[in-house]
Design goal:
With 289 residues, the chain is of the alpha/beta class. 40% of the residues lie in helices and 19% in strands. Strand 2, helix 2 and strand 3 form a beta-alpha-beta unit.
């Protein structure tokens, strides 16, 4: 039996959606599922009177999740694991032996701001394997796979992952490249320079190269190429992936630095996931400072 799909749960609606999604995928891939709950007792002393109560509560949560999972997916091997520490560090450690880590997106948000927690961001940034972030309101009839590209090695890894996923699920694949032209002010001052047009054409070439070879590898796969300009990449990806079965993005892009754990586009997308969103971590790519 291969590596398990690890699901982090904490009793929230998001983690319930994550478990549901993971079980469906595990049944498809014939993979085992490991349900993990973290008891963050770093601030507690061993003599703390409620220490054992909190531990028992965590184990009860896991056992109920396991029973529910076995009822809904009887053919999936489901195990549970209670660990101590922060959710991010626990799932980071679990990712070393996982095929995929799955967590729920946080449904609650500050007024006019981001989610109340960056749990998913922490997990994605630290994980050693791909991470799927699942929205609270998980739809079941959505179709299509969307992948964001920018010409970086990470985005090419994302395309490879997304193409295999789309082909396996019988979905169409949409490859999206988004860029904000820095040449608009030049065009306003000197409209005859043609700089904006050249930038569009260069990015169109990058998009075509990112999707090159998919037809030969997956002859039955329908691939769409979509170039978006003058819009924030994260906003474009969220809009395009609304209603998709899966959105795939790389952990970092071509503007990343070796000291940057999670790229700005991935970070922004995860603050408002439009559908199940998978951040690839196929293999490490070295970036120069």
């Amino acid at each position: 039996m291969g590596k398990p799909i690890v699901v982090g749960i904490n009793g929230s609606a998001g983690s319930e959606a994550a478990l549901t999604w993971a079980l469906t995928r595990a049944a498809r891939d014939k993979a085992p599922v490991l349900i993990v709950h973290a008891v963050d007792d770093r601030w507690m002393s061993p003599e703390f009177q409620y220490h054992e109560i909190i531990r028992e509560s965590g184990m009860d949560l896991l056992q109920k999740a396991q029973s529910s999972a076995r009822r809904h997916a009887p053919d999936v091997d489901v195990d549970i694991d209670l660990r101590h520490g922060s959710e991010g560090s626990v799932l980071r450690d679990a990712s070393n032996q996982a095929a995929l880590v799955v967590v729920g997106a946080h449904g609650k948000r500050w007024p006019n701001a981001g989610p109340l927690t960056d749990r998913a961001l922490q997990v994605v940034a630290a994980s050693e394997c791909p991470v799927a972030v699942i929205p609270v309101n998980l739809a079941t009839a959505d179709r299509g796979v969307v992948v964001g590209v920018d010409g970086s090695e990470e985005s090419l890894q994302a395309v490879a992952f997304a193409a295999a996923e789309a082909d396996l699920g019988g979905d169409e694949l949409t490859v999206v490249l988004v860029f904000k032209s820095t040449a608009r002010w030049v065009e306003i001052q000197s409209p005859s320079s043609g700089l904006a047009e050249r930038m569009v054409e260069e990015n169109r070439i990058v998009l075509a190269e990112s999707a090159a070879g998919l037809g030969g590898q997956y002859p039955d796969l329908t691939v769409h190429q979509r170039l978006e300009t003058n819009i924030e990449p994260a906003k474009a990806l969220v809009n395009i992936a609304d209603g998709a079965r899966l959105l795939v993005i790389g952990s970092r892009g071509r503007s990343g630095f070796s000291r940057t754990v999670l790229g700005s586009t991935a970070h922004a997308v995860l603050l408002g996931v439009p559908c199940p969103t998978l951040v690839t971590r196929v293999h490490r790519v070295k970036h120069g400072d």
